[in-house]
């Protein structure tokens, strides 16, 4: 089956899946759960093959770690499926209701988007999370995982497809893509695919955005900021910045630039340098920063750079508004935090910073679907449309309007025989 | 000021406007209301100039009618502004709230999209509706109206800009574009503009979609269907189809194709032909239709054609599922109606037809923001993302996540010192 046939089949299946009831979907999730346990030895063997090959190919340690699928990862995945079963069905929710006139009722009802193409990194657990999110949210999916995980992905895909289709989910609701040329082909299929979610490097996401007419949800850059306001608690500021920068440096919600109010810079910067030196973080700063601590020079380019590494750029700003303007100019609309004890400054910051996640007195590393309690996420979006921030089940829904009448015609209203009532019921 | 400068200014203004409070925005709308009354003679004079020039240029009658802005249109517009003032502010709504842990609270709050570029037909009232919708929803706007309305648009734009900025709305929140090259320029400004809403012909909307990286919301085709099910009330079916086809033929929610169940075709088609003959509707049909009524032949191309005229294609189908499949294959996802007395067939139709508006026993012409009670609409969307169907104030909103903590860091959760509670408050 080529990609176009797969996409056409997925579209057909998506129509049936869109109205599958909650019990059926949850039953299919349980069957997947059981099948993962029953076939775990197959999964582990395939994963060993992937790891051995990748070690031979010299894949770096952190990537080997992500590639590994062992008993511990399986447990996490199983508990994820359990919580997904317990989550409310996002499909068919009554979002609004208006009585347009006697016996003419308008309902706005949530429904799945349709067919989603998802391209993700070499993490086998991602395949399960993404496909079970698609299933629960009623969407058909075309999945492309990383090359390194190919053997593991094949087994996992077979488990998910067989278990769900045996449970009664429409045949062909899910497909596995294996090559880059499959992806190139998929990007052209805007007649069948409603949304592409690419996860991966900036360059990769930008490539997808530039090479498809299908809407893309995701984020290219993650240039996150912490701003230490003049009234910040100094210890809290040092802790939050350290966590935001160093708790996990290679992820999109790690902080890349620190802004410091000039009135607190002399107090906080030396303490911060001490804490970050212990974590081996390279610091670069503006001239005013360098008057206070002895670090390298930050250039204009630094404000635009997502290091994804043990490096932080620092700028001293004269006030809150300069911090907000810097973030709205150089940031990527991902996650930005103010550290302050002044409530009105915090509110102004959270209102005026134009980012998906705006934080007060907590680490930027919190912006994540699991931490937000979504059960799982398909990705984090910096789009200004549809879904923003971590995207879980709700972000995979759209809605339709259902209008139920009794022979009603517009001519009666155009000719003033009848007038609308527009009574908002919900 | 060139378009890039205008867009940059609009982006700057959009940040302030995004947090403007409801009273300020409503005050600005009142000032616009008053100014429209005070300067109505200027408006009417400019509109006369537009009409005289357009008459000389031989603009067709229906377009002259749309171009006209008189006392009657002004009254409609004024009452529209009044209802907009009374509508709830869509900005700052708490959409969801979760306590992640003690003293770590997540809020999902609605906020404006940002900067919207809207291109619309030569209808001066559209300029006022669109700009007041942008204002109330907290979005900055770049507006491009039809060339024929240029003099009227200039006055109306001046009124809206002066009145709102005098009332305290951020300077530069709204701009008027006047030429096609302005539009070409605007389509490139994805750094400043978040969304393009094009209204106009299919070709025009497709051109915009193909020539910009900015997300586009709207609809190209409006191929709407009525399906007469076997249990339909025959008189009701004739009335609904007649209204759906003829109440206003040149609009996107007029019906273009009629599907008829084979079991009712012999009863309903002759009566329908009689009714549509009176309205001078040209009918074309499939072979089975033509065995019953004497009309022209419909080709495959007819099922894909939006006539926007007094013409209807008719197909006899063997059952409900064939009707649904025909609509999902040839339709444009705009508005489709089933006429039936069978509730479960109606529900199946409304669930499985993948369109923005799915109707039961009422005319397709009802799919419209005013009729839905939205106060006004910026357009109708057949997108599967963000907003679908008629788009009013709510469709011009996105959301952001605000997370408020007290020094919380992710390391505490990663190291199992703390665990998330995830208590859903709203």
UniProtKB/TrEMBL annotation, chains A, B:
Compartments where located: Cytoplasm
Domain Aldehyde dehydrogenase: 2-281
A cellular-component GO term for this protein: cytoplasm
Record flagged with keyword Transcription: no
Location, primary (coarse class): cytoplasm
Molecular function GO labels: glutamate-5-semialdehyde dehydrogenase activity; NADP binding
Coiled coil: none
GO biological process, one term: L-proline biosynthetic process
UniProt keyword list: Amino-acid biosynthesis, Cytoplasm, NADP, Oxidoreductase, Proline biosynthesis
Known EC number: 1.2.1.41
UniProt KW Cytoplasm keyword: yes
Protein family per UniProt: Belongs to the gamma-glutamyl phosphate reductase family.
Function as written in the Swiss-Prot or TrEMBL entry: Catalyzes the NADPH-dependent reduction of L-glutamate 5-phosphate into L-glutamate 5-semialdehyde and phosphate. The product spontaneously undergoes cyclization to form 1-pyrroline-5-carboxylate.
Classification via NCBIfam families: PRK00197.1, proA
Name this polypeptide is given: Gamma-glutamyl phosphate reductase
